[in-house]
Amino acid sequence: MQTKKITVTVSATGAITAEANGPGPACMDDLAAIRALLPDAEIIDSKLTPAYFQTTIQEGVIHQSLEHETDNGT
Amino acid sequence: MSLEVLLIPIGLAAYAAIREARSTDKCENCKTTRIMDQQLLQEALLEMGATHLKITEGRITGNSPYGKITFQRVGQVFMGRVDRADDAVTMNMLSTLDTGVGALLQRRTVASLRARAAEMGMILVTETAANGEIQLVFEQAT
Which residue of A has its CA nearest to B98? Predict the structure, then answer.
């Protein structure tokens, strides 16, 4: 079983920042979870963080590595 | 996967709406606020120490520690002033009001978050307060 983590920071001005970290490229699931957690707020901006790209790159490297091993029959 | 989302509570205006608000003859010498919701404005005024509030649709007047006050909805947001006072007095009052609005919304958001997370089966792992910010970390099994 894997765990999704959502960090919510509420500033003194009332502005809210929510960050979702979890397994897999499940953007829409994460966005839905954040929306459900904060029904009385509206989203004004969203972005993928460097951690996302790091994960994607790492997954790409693993994928390429596996293909290479398969090509070599290893 | 990592996604970051910026949100504002319903009742507060985004920057564009605040920028578009201008003083009008309905509220001469008024300065803009970021408040869109009249109920939120009323509660923040009471928290600021305002009394004898007279409330009609889109307009609130009353007394405050700064003097008599007038708020009028102009476009999407409320604008306000201290009646017959210098701009500096109005700005001072609006600054105090804005701080109160932030504190009010922060309390509400945190309380709502705890309740919603419990309903969704999420676990509150940590809750910390520092530099005026409150941070809550939730976990959910996937």
Answer: A13
> Do A55 and B7 count as a contact with CB atoms less than 8 A apart?
no
**CA distances in angstroms from B60 to B18, B41, B52, B57, B128, listed in the order given:** 19, 9, 10, 8, 36
- pLDDT 10s digits, B96-139: 999 999 999 999 999 999 999 999 999 999 999 999 999 999 99
pTM of this structure: 0.82
Q: Tell me if B99 and A48 make a contact (CB, 8 A cut-off).
A: no
Strand order through the sheet with B2-9: A41-48, B2-9, A16-21, A3-10, B133-141, B123-130
Q: Cβ contact (<8 Å) for B134 and A46?
A: no
**Cα–Cα distance measured from residue B17 to residue B37, given in angstroms and rounded to the nearest whole number:** 13
Chains A, B: CB pairs < 8 Å: 161
Residues of B in contact with A58 (CB under 8 A): none
Q: What is the pLDDT of residues B37-75, one digit of tens each?
A: 999 999 999 999 999 999 999 999 999 999 999 999 998
Radius of gyration over every alpha carbon of chain B, rounded to an integer in angstroms: 18
B127–chain A Cβ distance below 8 A for any pair: no
Contact B13, B76 (CB under 8 A): yes
Query: Does the CB of B88 have a partner CB in chain A at under 8 Å?
Result: no
Which two three-digit tokens encode residue A22?
A: 């979890």
